[in-house]
Amino acid sequence: MNLPIAFEKKMKHLLGAEFDKYIACYENPRYYGLRVNTGKISVEKFQQICPFKITPIPWIENGFYYDGEEVSPAKHPYYFAGLYYLQEPSAMTPASRLPIAPGERVLDVCAAPGGKATELGARLCREGVLVANDISSSRAKGLLKNLEVFGIGNMLTVSEEPGRLMDYFPEYFDKILIDAPCSGEGMFRKDKRMIKAWEEHGPEFFAKLQRSIVTQAASMLRPGGMMLYSTCTFDGLENEETVEYLLESCPEFHLVEMEGYEGFVCGKPEHTKSGNPDLTKTVRIFPHRMNGEGHFLALLQKGQATPRMKPALKSKSGGKLPDELAEFCQDVAFPLAAERLDIHGGRVYYMPDGLPELRGIRFLRTGLLLGELKKKRFEPSQALAMYLKKEEYAHTLDFTLEDDRIRRYLKGETIDVESIAGPKAKGWHLVCVDGFPLGWGKLSGGTLKNKYLPGWRDQSV
Ligand SMILES: C[S@@+](CC[C@H](N)C(=O)[O-])C[C@H]1O[C@@H](n2cnc3c(N)ncnc32)[C@H](O)[C@@H]1O
């Protein structure tokens, strides 16, 4: 592979005697990974039902390698059911090393397309709130889709400059992840276009941006909260030196040791101005040391660990579900709190609890879109289908993976379901594959009108 001379020179300085091994690994094929959505299925169960060969990624509890030259997991119905996310193995590490407890307030500052946000959301277990932001509104659309496929409802999908979010969320979050825009040196093997991009915008360009993002994010973290900074690049300026800048600008922050792995390489204080020995708590992943492409991670805490205060913001109380929604909810196994509903233009959203005033923020989604109020009826949304578990809705049509009707459903075709629904069944049904919801269908006279979201349909032949 033709790597820029300036890049090779820098890597020689960083790696010393290991440089030759590093360069040699560019001749090896890239690694393909998938991460199990533990919000929908346990790792053990997934291993039992996964129809293609997977092997565990040793430093990620719910991560697996697959052979990307042999199988296409993105075309599988389980992918449409949100059972896993396809992700390069080292990129799974940042979210796995940020401790998340259900009920926390979590911000992912640079979240699109959702590789880390989907994991953070899954670990919140429907409680608390995930704010998933990306400055690019086009990329944020993909982020929203991935969060919805994963069944994450307690979220806000936002497209803002972090500097604007600061005004709305001062010291609000328990955990923050910054997977910063970077020069992408760790992606050269996976995506050759990154080499050209590096020549146009190298580490100096990104370091400036990263410094402004980390200090803005720091002001949104509550005292005692934790922040994880990551990049997919090797350069010291974008890594140790950005962390050093944060520690000097916000002295209340300190570095925290994270759960290790034998292939992790400690950060290098000797490549910084301060030489701060704490920088050895940061971690680099190199492709010649482990079976992943490359990443950098730093885990930080603001002040001393303190338990989270009870939310200062009182949620609204009272209210009543609109009649059409109340009727639909008779078939849903959990109660909705009417005070958390937000209705705009007939669209009904279920908002996370304890939010501050949000007017003025550029949103793609606030909360879980439950559906739409139409004339005297309620139409459930695709997002609600993905959020529900099979046992939480009264009327389901559960197909096995082998049943050809599943693939036809995902393509948007009308399917005959009399054999499993019975001739008298009618109304909204949750269509599932092996017990995992895929979307809605409206049943009448033994035929299922396909309500799978047109934009999500399987386009492959
Ligand atoms: C490394 S990618 C994030 C990948 C994502 N975390 C994932 O795992 O799928 C960096 C993202 O930062 C976004 N970005 C660039 N500048 C930003 C800024 N000032 N504030 C927030 N996001 C920014 C880019 O649009 C890009 O999507």
From TrEMBL:
It comes from Bariatricus massiliensis. This is RsmF rRNA methyltransferase first C-terminal domain-containing protein. The active site is at 232 (nucleophile). InterPro entries: Methyltr_RsmF_N, MeTrfase_RsmB-F_NOP2_cat, MeTrfase_RsmB-F_NOP2_dom, Nol1_Nop2_Fmu_2, Nop2p, RCMT, RsmB/NOL1/NOP2-like_CS, RsmF_methylt_CI. S-adenosyl-L-methionine binds at residues 110-116, 134, 179. Residues 22-303 form the SAM-dependent MTase RsmB/NOP-type domain. GO terms for biological process: methylation. It holds the Pfam family Methyltr_RsmB-F. GO terms for molecular function: methyltransferase activity. The keyword Methyltransferase applies. Belongs to the class I-like SAM-binding methyltransferase superfamily. RsmB/NOP family. Keywords: Cytoplasm, Methyltransferase, RNA-binding, S-adenosyl-L-methionine, Transferase.
